Write a sequence for this structure.
DNA sequence: GACAACCTGACC
DNA sequence: GGTCAGGTTGTC
């Protein structure tokens, strides 16, 4: 589920709510959610939460013992800070008991994962090192060069985390609509001006979504368990057959790069 | 670049 | 019963 705005919302929530808290105990409920080996509790218990960060759609939780807990939520993952008295939900796979509450990892489909790495080895974690520049931080010129330097279907390129980190299916469709670009257009065929417009549209979309604390279609909730509201502002995603906000013609849905894609064939070229 | 795989649940 | 889902990875 979560794309950059959802993951960033969770990180901001948790940064406020769990920074500085001490880890009292750990509960490995489902061992298969760990990407590598299941870590020994001694590498976690007794440490404090030092700070949190985001790399693409990965959440990084830095512990005071110089280890880093990495969390990827994939499609249906949730990472929430709750009171121990809050009812335990189905599909909760991992709990960190902190002084003052519990950090819970819940994931219906179990596509998400957890990973614990030693701080000095963080730079060598393959799936982090290969990530492209962050979609919120990449500058206009770098973005334009990236887009025009690849001969790929633009939607697939935007979804490629190794090219640009953070974009997902919703925000790619929304940004392409705002920029008036057809999702199947070949990236290298875009003019500097149109690539620049796409950069602008991408930032606008992501920042609006952040202000609304993300989009909740089904599962997503922030770090405090509350849903986002940006789904109410979607212009094309999930609106197949409904009128295009610009021209009124019906929004179409096709498959691009194996993903459901929503667009207006009149407004996007 | 297309497609299957990983899983559960919602909806038709 | 079949289809689809916010993501990524591995195989033709």
């Amino acid at each position: 589920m979560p794309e950059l705005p959802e993951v960033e919302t969770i990180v901001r929530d948790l940064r406020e709510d769990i920074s500085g808290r001490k880890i009292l105990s750990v509960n490995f409920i489902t061992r298969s959610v760990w990407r590598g080996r299941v870590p020994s509790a001694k590498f976690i218990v007794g440490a404090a939460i030092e700070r949190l960060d985001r790399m693409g759609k990965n959440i990084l939780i830095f512990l005071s013992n110089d280890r880093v807990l990495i969390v990827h939520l994939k499609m249906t993952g949730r990472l929430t800070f709750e009171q121990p008295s809050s009812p335990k939900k189905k599909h909760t796979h991992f709990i960190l008991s902190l002084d003052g509450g519990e950090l819970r990892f819940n994931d219906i489909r179990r596509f998400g994962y957890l990973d614990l790495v030693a701080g000095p080895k963080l730079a060598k974690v393959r799936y982090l090192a290969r990530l492209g520049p962050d979609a919120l931080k990449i500058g206009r010129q770098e973005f334009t060069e990236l887009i025009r330097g690849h001969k790929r279907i633009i939607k697939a390129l935007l979804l490629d985390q190794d090219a640009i980190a953070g974009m997902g299916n919703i925000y790619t469709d929304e940004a392409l609509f705002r920029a008036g670009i057809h999702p199947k257009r070949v990236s290298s065929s875009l003019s500097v001006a149109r690539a620049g417009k796409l950069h602008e549209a991408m930032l606008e979309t992501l920042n609006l979504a952040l202000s609304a604390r993300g989009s909740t279609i089904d599962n997503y909730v922030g770090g405090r368990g509350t849903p986002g509201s940006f789904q109410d502002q979607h212009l094309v995603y999930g609106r197949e057959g409904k009128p295009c906000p610009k021209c009124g013609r019906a929004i179409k849905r096709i498959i691009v790069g194996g993903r459901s894609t929503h667009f207006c064939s009149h407004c996007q070229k």
Q: What stands out?
A: Chain A has six helices and ten strands. The two ends of chain A are 28 Å apart (CA to CA). Chain A has two domains: 4-129, 140-263. Residues 74-76, 91, 107-111, 152-153, 156, 218, 257-258 of chain A lie near DNA strand B (CB under 10 Å from a C1').
